[in-house]
């Protein structure tokens, strides 16, 4: 059986080009981040809406994020203390009641998960944070809503966090402080 020089070149070219194309797909990718805030965002005891700070984390693993508690965040521990070597980077956004915020972020090659945390006055016990597969975010971007006491995914389906119900609450019922 003989091979022509032309078919050998095609095989060689395919052996170089295909891996390059595949590696380009898995590399860093710039994504759009869009957050929408409810008019009644993060209401105080008198019902006045207040802004919410949201942190977006790029993570190597979901384990530390799944174990993280709001009490630990509010106790003054650093993100690095809480997330350890799973934390790749973080970004902070401020959500204003009734407004939306748009930003962009490069999702790194080593990022496997994207975590979103809302620092609400009276957070819902399950939906003060969301966790996403990074590949889903790379293909669709990150769009979420911030309501009175919880975050809600819009574009990508979030990954369930231990103790989190399948849906965010219909309304926030905790007592206002």
From TrEMBL:
Alphabetical list of Pfam families matching this protein: T6SS-SciN
Keywords, alphabetical: Lipoprotein
InterPro entries (UniProt xref): T6SS_SciN, Type_VI_SciN-like_sf
PANTHER family cross-referenced by the UniProt entry: OUTER MEMBRANE LIPOPROTEIN, OUTER MEMBRANE LIPOPROTEIN-RELATED
Protein name as it appears in the record: Type VI secretion system lipoprotein TssJ
Organism: Aquitalea aquatica
């Amino acid at each position: 059986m003989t091979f022509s020089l032309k078919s050998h070149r095609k095989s060689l070219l395919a052996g170089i080009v295909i891996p390059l194309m595949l590696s380009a797909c898995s590399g860093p990718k710039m994504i759009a981040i869009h957050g929408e805030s409810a008019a009644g965002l993060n209401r105080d005891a008198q019902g006045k809406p207040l802004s919410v700070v949201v942190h977006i984390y790029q993570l190597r693993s979901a384990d530390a994020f799944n174990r993280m508690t709001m009490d630990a965040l509010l106790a003054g521990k650093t993100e690095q203390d809480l997330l350890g070597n799973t934390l790749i980077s973080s970004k902070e956004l401020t959500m204003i009641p009734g407004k939306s915020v748009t930003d962009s972020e490069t999702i790194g090659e080593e990022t496997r998960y994207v975590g979103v945390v809302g620092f609400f006055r009276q957070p819902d016990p399950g939906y003060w944070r969301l966790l996403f597969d990074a590949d889903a975010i790379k293909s669709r971007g990150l769009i979420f809503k911030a309501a009175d006491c919880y975050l809600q995914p819009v574009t990508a389906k979030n990954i369930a966090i231990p103790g989190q119900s399948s849906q965010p609450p219909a309304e926030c019922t905790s007592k206002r402080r």
